[in-house]
Inverse folding.
């Protein structure tokens, strides 16, 4: 229903809705994380080549997926904000960035932890890790640009444009790094290719991904709520909320 | 009479920026010297062993070219911004993206082209010769315009911000990765007796892509920054 | 011809003005005044299309200027706080590139005459960095002499000008209005403008 969407695109009506949703997503994130980690650490079979150390992938792979996906979602909201000039989309884009950067960092960190037992080195210039590192730089650039611009309107529009430039470049960068890696016969961390992935392993990874999604939504909605309060602090409805809370 | 023709905005701004560069030659030379000095520091850091130097030469020359281009980006719009000319460009009936194209072309002629011309000399110092040297020049010829085009976006986004110089590098350097990979990769491929056609076509594709979208995105960024 | 409808401007999270209306026809001057920080410059930049209104729209011949784009910019000349004059270029070169950016390409003789009329005779070929502040403003103002724009938007044009230059500029604005042009002007100086119809717009009260 199109009219409903536009109703919730206004910060004043989005704020209470988001407030009601956050606990549900938070609870779902907690439950799914427990379930996913249980499946990954206790149910999934031990890998015959990599032993127990491989179990880090139940965090590493979902985090890596999320880091790239969040960038695209962020660019989508940024584009929406630029084209339709809706403030809420700009808030969304801005609130997604720290979470995306967090997942990128987790993916890099767990990648290093995984690399040590596999390759005997904390860091290998593997195509995926390298792309992930550049993705982290893209997130940092986006957040720094936001932070450097004082006028909120210019900050939202300039960083929105940057997110779009980044989104166009992510596939090009990814492809070029792959190409660079194959030419230099670099190391590559991958699942033991011979054995097919056990069904429980895939399930565990998908559950973890879902858990990360729930977490992302809960955190982003909370951040957007803060953002709304800060930007609209002079408006009447925020004053009403403040008066109600003070009582 | 009247400024007609689609590219007249490009031409006028290009001519003006070249005149300005001609009257501020030190700016041009600074970038070139920076390039030369950065490249010359590597043998001092790595050691004079000829085999090592030959192996890392393409990477070093390319990274130095990235840094030199980036260093000069701050100047691209700042002067015009401070004296009000940039406002007049935004208010021109000529399409802003074509004016931007003129500015980027001038930037390349003043910073990128000298790097291309200087590169064989530095390549020789690193023991490159013959085909790899030619390919090095060719990759820089194809790649440095891309660096100017991408850099212009970063310069436009960070226009007038505190700490703009450091911020620009954070925004622009990750976007330079593909150019670096294909550029340095081509030289390495030829140096080890392989074909570099694929690298060169990919660089060419990047150039076409950057030419199509770069000025347009930069124009949008300038409008945002000057609001 | 030029109309501002329900305009609002926001800077940071401060509202500069809201619900602003004005209309201007051929031969009329809009005199925008108000204390510092009341949004005069913002309004003028809005009229040029440099700043998007937070609410409302500016219409030129009944069409939103943001939709008209390049064609509107060909009809409009803006003079801001900064003269748009480059230190390294001579007065003549500065004027030439400024005219070219505005979509015209006058001959060298025309350029020299315009500079002469602004009292810069014999200084055309000096680099602008050796000119005084007022002379540099004159170089910037010379652009108006060669402009064919119908709408002039002038932000504090009298700053740094001496008595003679102020009179020159006033005569020029009068001529422009008499030819059916429009002008929007802010100034802190007490300036008499007897030509055409002068409308006044007060901000920040």
């Amino acid at each position: 229903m199109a009219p409903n969407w536009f109703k919730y695109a206004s910060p004043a009506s989005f704020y209470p809705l988001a407030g009601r949703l956050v606990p549900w997503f938070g609870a779902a994130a907690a439950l799914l994380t427990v379930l996913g980690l249980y499946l990954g650490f206790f149910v999934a079979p031990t890998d015959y080549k990599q032993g127990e150390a491989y179990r880090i992938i139940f965090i590493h792979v979902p985090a890596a997926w999320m880091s790239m996906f969040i960038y695209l979602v962020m660019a989508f909201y940024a584009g929406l904000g630029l084209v339709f000039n809706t403030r809420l989309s700009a808030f969304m884009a801005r609130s997604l960035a720290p979470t995306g950067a967090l997942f990128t960092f987790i993916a890099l960190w767990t990648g290093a932890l995984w690399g040590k037992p596999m390759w005997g080195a904390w860091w290998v210039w593997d195509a995926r890790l390298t792309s992930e590192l550049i993705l982290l730089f893209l997130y940092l650039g986006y957040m720094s640009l936001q932070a450097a611009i004082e006028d909120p309107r210019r900050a939202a529009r300039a960083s929105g444009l940057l997110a779009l430039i980044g989104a166009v470049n992510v596939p090009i960068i990814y492809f070029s790094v792959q190409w660079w890696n194959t030419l230099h016969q670099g190391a590559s961390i991958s699942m033991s290719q011979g054995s097919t992935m056990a069904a429980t392993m895939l399930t565990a990874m998908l559950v973890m991904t879902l858990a990360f999604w729930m977490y992302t939504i809960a955190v982003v909605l909370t951040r957007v709520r803060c953002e709304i309060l800060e930007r609209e602090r002079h408006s009447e409805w925020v004053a009403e909320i403040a008066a109600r809370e003070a009582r | 009479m009247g400024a007609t023709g689609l590219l007249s905005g490009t031409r006028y701004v290009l001519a003006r920026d070249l005149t300005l560069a001609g009257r501020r030659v030190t700016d041009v030379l600074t970038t070139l010297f920076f390039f030369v000095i950065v490249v010359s520091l590597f043998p001092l850091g790595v050691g004079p062993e000829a085999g090592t130097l030959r192996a890392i030469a393409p990477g070093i020359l390319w990274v130095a070219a990235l840094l030199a281009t980036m260093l000069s980006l701050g100047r691209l719009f700042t002067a015009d911004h401070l004296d009000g000319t940039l406002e007049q460009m935004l208010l021109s009936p000529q399409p802003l993206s074509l004016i931007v194209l003129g500015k980027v072309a001038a930037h390349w002629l003043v910073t990128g082209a000298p790097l291309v011309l200087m590169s064989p000399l530095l390549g020789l110092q690193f023991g490159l010769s013959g085909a790899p040297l030619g390919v090095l020049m060719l990759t820089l010829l194809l790649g440095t315009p891309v660096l100017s085009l991408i850099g212009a976006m970063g310069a436009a986004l960070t226009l007038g911000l505190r700490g703009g110089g450091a911020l620009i590098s954070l925004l622009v350097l990750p976007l330079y990765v593909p150019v670096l990979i294909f550029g340095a990769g081509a030289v390495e491929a030829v140096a080890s007796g392989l074909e570099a056609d694929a690298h060169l076509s990919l660089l060419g594709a990047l150039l076409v892509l950057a030419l199509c979208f770069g000025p347009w995105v930069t124009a949008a960024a300038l409008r945002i920054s000057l609001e | 011809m030029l109309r501002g409808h329900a305009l609002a401007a926001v800077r940071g999270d401060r509202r500069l003005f809201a619900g602003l209306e004005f209309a201007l026809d051929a031969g009329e001057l809009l005199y925008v005044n108000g204390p510092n920080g009341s949004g005069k410059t913002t309004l003028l930049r809005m009229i040029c299309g440099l700043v998007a209104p937070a609410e409302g729209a500016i219409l030129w011949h009944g069409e939103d200027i943001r939709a008209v784009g390049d064609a509107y910019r060909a009809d409009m000349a803006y003079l801001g706080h900064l003269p748009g004059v480059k230190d390294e270029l001579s007065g003549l070169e500065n004027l030439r590139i400024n005219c070219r950016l505005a979509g015209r390409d006058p001959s060298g003789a025309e350029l020299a005459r315009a500079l002469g009329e602004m009292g810069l005779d014999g200084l055309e070929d000096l680099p602008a960095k050796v000119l005084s502040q007022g002379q540099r403003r004159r170089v910037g103002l010379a652009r108006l002499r060669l402009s064919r724009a119908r709408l002039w938007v002038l932000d504090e044009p009298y700053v740094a000008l001496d008595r003679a230059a102020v009179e020159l500029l006033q005569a020029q604005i009068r001529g422009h209005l008499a030819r059916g042009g429009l002008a929007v002007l802010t100034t802190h100086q007490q300036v008499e403008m007897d030509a055409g119809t002068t409308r006044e717009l007060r901000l920040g009260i």
The radius of gyration of chain C is 17 Å. The mean pLDDT of chain C is 84. Residues 163-178 of chain C form the longest helix (16 residues). The interface with chain B takes residues 48-52, 70-71, 73-74, 76, 78, 80-89, 93, 97-98, 100-106, 127, 140 of chain C (CB under 8 Å).
